[in-house]
Design brief:
Helix content is 33%, strand content 22%. The protein is of the alpha/beta class. The strands form three sheets. Strands 4-8-9-10-5-6-7 form a seven-stranded antiparallel sheet. A six-stranded parallel sheet has the order 13-12-14-15-11-16, sandwiched between helices. A hairpin with a 2-residue loop joins strand 6 and strand 7.
Length: 456
């Protein structure tokens, strides 16, 4: 497919007599595109029409595009996959034209090029200057108060909550939650900087900035989160942890909330746990055939400890639940203790850690051992007491599964010895250790073979 280079189009674009730069433009300092937009000389439709006529490509002028999963080599240069497009990649208006052209030239497949004009999109989407603008943004996104239902009840305690309870702030936070759910984000980060509040989502393991608002709204947003998660809105000097249960349409969502004081204000992280999430089978979690055979031989033993290790967010709990699904039957008493309970599975007795009620991993595990369990799953071995009880349980005829934060499988022995577990007990108790990482999966609907340049 013949394609006029971006740099050539830009030059032709800048040489048009009817688009002469305004007097305020200074070469080498200003972006001509940005200056013309600010000056009012350009409109989105005009630029799109010109580029379409020059290149023969369809140029999208949508205010917001459903852009997902940045192309790895161009993550910082605004090249994205486009959901629903026949061709895999879309290109927003970049700053480094030559670098983008060079990489796109090496791609073996056609490139669907779009114009998104970051300056305009930023003004229309992410600059929240006052409550009227907040309301217009929400109207554009099509969200409303009815989109989110807070299941747990709460009371407004004092005047500190007044600003947080005003409709625009409620709608703004609802928008943040709805968009995160739509984008399949696992975490929401609300961060205070010197002059703005930044919102980022973790999608497919990577943080992506989605919007920012003026700093004056930060305390109200944080207070609203605290109210919804039953935290102390007056306490801003110490970290707090809470949770909220939401209904987004027909979907139930459990949100774990953590606040942390920082230099410019409190940072909030919300982890999204979808109720009724599908538990994958062992065949679906990425193991090879030979690995599946070895793994099945381990998990079908009558007793011992199986550890799954890896960094946070690497799918350890998902692997363990796939294991429980494989072993689940009415002839077995399976009990788990977790913080939080990420999947809800029939025929499995699941215990939520509740430190306020005196239930932690160690005390919960002691109680589980009095419940005649066949299989025990411990969400995480965090302390000496939990590790000691788990090892003793494995040595007394129980099959125990747990996660452990280590970088590799051999490191698990060192970690458990640091928890004062005797080496000879570990040798007898441990039947297997799995160290895992996550890699991004190709889209099962649109993935195609592609011969990439060796330099990429």
């Amino acid at each position: 497919m013949a394609r006029l280079s971006l740099i050539e189009r830009l030059r032709a674009f800048e040489q048009r007599s009817d688009l002469s730069p305004p007097t305020s433009f200074q070469p080498g300092r200003d972006s001509l595109l940005g200056t013309l937009q600010t000056d009012g000389t350009l409109t989105r439709d005009r630029v799109a029409a010109f580029l379409a006529s020059e290149t023969g490509h369809v140029i999208s002028t949508a205010t917001r595009l459903d852009l997902r999963n940045p192309l790895t080599q161009l993550r910082d240069r605004e090249v994205f996959e486009i959901r629903g497009a026949e061709d895999a990649y879309g290109l927003t208006w970049p700053q480094d034209f030559i670098a983008v052209d060079e990489i796109l030239r090496r791609c073996a497949r056609p490139i669907f090029e779009i114009l998104s004009l970051p300056e305009l999109e930023e003004n229309e989407v992410t600059q929240v200057d006052d409550r009227e603008v907040v309301q217009s943004i929400l109207q554009d996104l099509g969200s409303s108060d009815a989109d989110i239902e807070v299941v747990n009840s709460f009371d407004l305690a004092d005047d500190v909550a007044d600003l947080a309870d005003e409709a625009p702030i409620i709608k703004l936070l609802n928008m943040i939650l709805l968009r995160a759910f739509k984008d399949e984000a696992s975490d929401i980060h609300i961060e205070a900087e010197e002059n703005v509040t930044r919102v980022r989502y973790r999608v497919d393991g990577e943080l992506r900035e989605v919007m920012h608002s003026p700093k004056k709204f930060h305390n109200a947003i944080v207070s609203r989160v605290k109210i919804m998660s039953d935290l102390d809105i007056a306490e801003k000097r110490t970290p707090q942890d809470g949770r909220m249960k939401l209904k987004l349409g027909r979907d139930g969502v459990d949100v774990r909330v953590s606040t942390l004081p920082s230099v410019y204000g409190e940072k909030v992280v919300m982890r999204i746990l979808r109720e009724g999430s599908l538990v994958l089978g062992i065949e679906d979690i990425g193991f090879s055939e030979s690995q599946i055979q070895v793994y099945r031989s381990i998990i079908t033993r009558p007793y011992g400890i199986l550890l799954v290790t890896g960094p946070t967010g690497s799918g350890k709990t998902t692997t363990l639940y796939s294991t429980l699904r494989y072993l689940n039957s009415k002839s077995k008493n399976i009990i788990t203790i977790e913080d939080p309970v990420e999947y809800q599975v029939e025929n499995i007795n699941q215990i939520q850690v509740n430190r306020k009620a005196g239930i932690d991993f160690a005390s919960g595990l002691k109680s589980i051992l009095r419940q005649d369990p066949d299989i025990i799953m411990i969400g995480e071995m965090r302390d000496e007491e939990t590790a000691s009880i788990a090892v003793k349980a494995a040595l007394t005829g129980h099959l125990v599964f747990s996660t452990l934060h280590t970088n590799d499988a051999p490191g698990s022995y060192e970690r458990l010895q640091d928890m004062k577990v005797a080496p000879y007990l570990l040798t007898s108790a441990i039947i297997g250790i799995v160290a895992q990482r996550l890699v991004r999966r190709n889209c099962p609907r649109c993935a195609e073979p592609d011969a990439a340049d060796p330099e990429l």
